[in-house]
Amino acid sequence: MSEDLLGIYLNDHLAGSVVGHELVKRTHASNEGTPLGDFLNLLAEEIEEDRRALTDVMDRLGVRRNPAKQAGGWVVEKLGRLKPNGRLLGYSDLSRVLELEGLTIGITGKLALWRNLQALAQVDERLATAPIEEVIRRSERQLRDLQEYRVEAARTAFGD
User: Fold this and answer.
1) Confidence check: pLDDT of 27 > 50
2) Crossing angle for the helix pair 132-158 and 93-121, nearest 10 degrees?
């Protein structure tokens, strides 16, 4: 196993978790007081919990965190706010669709990470007690729920 490559990979995903957490907080703020907002509030808590699980795995494996990558993730999310959304100022139905798509992509990546860690746990005893199965199940549920809200947002944005 290449410890260096694994460290890069895990730090990339840690940076991605920063992007996801910032994105879900922003999306929640724009949808507060709705069923979607309630879902996003829970999702924000779970993304933070999953990020803690990832840092625990990194600690178990002796992988040092790269603060520059985490800061880069924060900047990337802020720059993502500059995309056109059909309105000069403010939030639009297209904003919601794009943000939910971004969250879907992020959670899909997170699920791939944890499935890879599941395979690694078969040969690395340091991961024997990591909450891998729990994070996989939670991520699968998050994707299912997010898919429903994403499709609903697309119907609202692009429907009649």
Assistant:
1) yes
2) 160
- For residue 91, give the DSSP letter: -
Backbone torsions φ then ψ of 151, nearest 5 degrees: -65, -40
Task: Please give the angle made by the CA atoms of 101, 105 and 107, to the nearest 5 degrees.
Answer: 115
Residue 72 has pLDDT above 60, yes or no: no
Number of compact structural domains in the chain: 1
Give the residue numbers spanning the domain of 94. 3-158
Look at phi and psi of residue 86 and say left if phi exceeds 0, alpha if psi is from -120 to 50, else beta: left
What CATH number does the domain containing 97 carry?
1.20.1260.10
Whole-prediction pTM: 0.85
Which tokens belong to 46? Answer: 């779970």
In eight-state DSSP terms, residue 65 is: P
